[in-house]
Amino acid sequence: MHAFAVDGLPEIDAGDDLAALVAERADLTDGDVVCVASTVVSKAEGRTAALAEFTPGPRAEEIAARLADVTGEQKDPRFAQAVIEEATEVIMDAPFLLTETTCGHVGVNAGIDRSNTGGAELLLLPKRPAESAARIQAGLAADVGVVVTDTSGRPFRHGQRGVALGWAGLPAARDWRGETDRDGHELAVTVEAVVDELAATANLVSGEGDDGTPVVVVREFEFGDHDGSEQLFRAVDGDFVRQALRDWTFDGA
């Protein structure tokens, strides 16, 4: 397996055909996985916004004031309002806004980006990244998988890594349950988040900051003879960390 960036992509604007732009610059073959950063998907879908578009309500004002108290930095309540409107749930509001987005992804600030926005103040996540992945896949001549990626922090660890927001043309995970290890023990709980691993691979190649290579092709990845699973985002009733956070209050200590 190897991964390479698609070079020469222009700055993406609303209405651009990402599949066509990729196809012009990459000689894709059947079985490739095309990993596309959510930033360019959002730009193509016109998911930019200005702070002036958001009128803060009482909750946004309260959150901004609370964050200012905790961090010592002034927070714009309009940004808090944008996060609230883009989230299906605000899981934690201090010392940062931890949210669930419409696609099920849990991350900071509803994934709203203020870097590499193409000149806009805010870049919002794609509304339905799985549908975005399917559209890109349909526009590519080869039989490929597509993963829409983002970067996200990780509980208990420093740093960010690539994660999948939406995917098409391949399962989300390898389900190893029922198979055996080298000692003959049956695996009971192992489900491997393949699309996240592919997204992390792509992020190593595409980089961060001003690299300007938002599309990466992973070639000769083999899913193998395993059951596939579409489960990636943990259900709320089985997410004990989220349930604990709902009862937790940050006191600034």
From TrEMBL:
Its EC number is 6.3.2.31, 6.3.2.34. GO terms for molecular function: coenzyme F420-0:L-glutamate ligase activity; coenzyme F420-1:gamma-L-glutamate ligase activity; GTP binding; metal ion binding. Its cofactor is Mg(2+); Mn(2+); K(+). One of its GO terms (biological process) is F420-0 metabolic process. It catalyses: oxidized coenzyme F420-0 + GTP + L-glutamate = oxidized coenzyme F420-1 + GDP + phosphate + H(+); oxidized coenzyme F420-1 + GTP + L-glutamate = oxidized coenzyme F420-2 + GDP + phosphate + H(+). Binds 2 divalent metal cations per subunit. The ions could be magnesium and/or manganese. Monovalent cation. The ion could be potassium. Pfam families: F420_ligase. The keyword Manganese applies. Transmembrane segments: none annotated. A divalent metal cation 2 binds at T151, E208. GTP binds at residues 9-12, 38-39, 43, 116, 206-213. Homodimer. NCBIfam families: F420_cofE, PRK13293.1. Catalyzes the GTP-dependent successive addition of two or more gamma-linked L-glutamates to the L-lactyl phosphodiester of 7,8-didemethyl-8-hydroxy-5-deazariboflavin (F420-0) to form coenzyme F420-0-glutamyl-glutamate (F420-2) or polyglutamated F420 derivatives. Belongs to the CofE family. This is Coenzyme F420:L-glutamate ligase. It comes from Halobacterium salinarum (strain ATCC 33171 / DSM 3754 / JCM 8978 / NBRC 102687 / NCIMB 764 / 91-R6). The lineage of its organism: Archaea, Methanobacteriati, Methanobacteriota, Stenosarchaea group, Halobacteria. The gene is cofE.
